[in-house]
Predict the structure.
Amino acid sequence: MFTGIVEELGEVTAVENLGDSSRFRLRGPLVTEDAKHGDSIAVNGVCLTVVDTADGEFTADVMAETLKRSALGALRPGSRVNLERPMAVGDRLGGHIVQGHVDGTGTILARTPSENWEIVTVSLPAPLRRYVVEKGSITVDGVSLTVVDAAADHFTISLIPTTLALTTLGIKEPGDPVNLEVDVIAKYVERLLGDTTEGAVQ
């Protein structure tokens, strides 16, 4: 479990194409200081398993299913990434409950700067629209955020200077893909109520 509070702005140092999967090497001195084989680290909101660590870097294998459902396939050596270790029992839940299981991808549509913050508009895939509400929580590239406005095919988020400076959302441009994870509680409630509406996330 994660909270969507990014710990470190890391970097992809190598990508190895293995046919139906990829092996990523990522630099993150903070998140690897206590990481070991088998641990989890969220990379742009995607929960990945650590294969090995060395010199402030870690390796993770990314299966075909993950590449299909997320924007990790667009990463290249030099790409910056948001990194977060799992929440430890007893920690404060600074963001919201995040699983690191991406529900879909969106695209940065526009950026509107203001004096002390920036409004970012993100496209919203049809299957996820039912879970995104005004003032609700959403995870964008692993960052826990509050939805400002929720429209039929997009939503907006307001980014404070800290988020702009310490995450990839400060450097993403219109046209760039982002990973989206909606509120897991909403999905559980829907399932418990027996909603089988076409397009619902399963």
